[in-house]
Amino acid sequence: MVETGMETRQSVDPRMPSAECGAPPLADSACDLVTVPTRQGLEAVDILRRGACDGVGPVLHDNGDDTLGFLVPPGTAAAWDLPGSTCTETNGRGLRLAPDPEPPVEGSDWLLPPGDADLATDPEVLRAALGEAARLIEAADGCR
Fold this sequence. Notes:
The protein is an alpha+beta fold. Helices cover 22% and strands 17% of the residues. The protein has helices at residues 38-49, 123-142, and strands at 32-37, 59-62, 67-72, 86-88, 108-112. It has a 5-stranded antiparallel β-sheet with strand order 4-1-3-2-5. α1 crosses α2.
């Protein structure tokens, strides 16, 4: 039973298609960058790639800091608050995607280059995948 005035929201399952299944295209546009530890990021990439839609956009691997960076639509940084991750606003700071771009940061490489993944990762789908990845890692570490 739903009471009057009560809002309901469908939970986001990264394996199921949603209205947000494709975030805005990034081709030659600015974007924000969600950075996570490599282990959690790789798990999230696997979760997103098993999904029903193209849920993962371009992903950078920073060899020096052992992190992954997911490109997300501009404006994501303003509301990003997932513990264990950072979202950096890059608009106006030179991180723009064009066809066949070089990695934008020295010492980094593309895990999934923009040519292979030309849509930004949907922030809500990424949030759900990162949460699932953290739970999987915690469970695996608890079994040792």
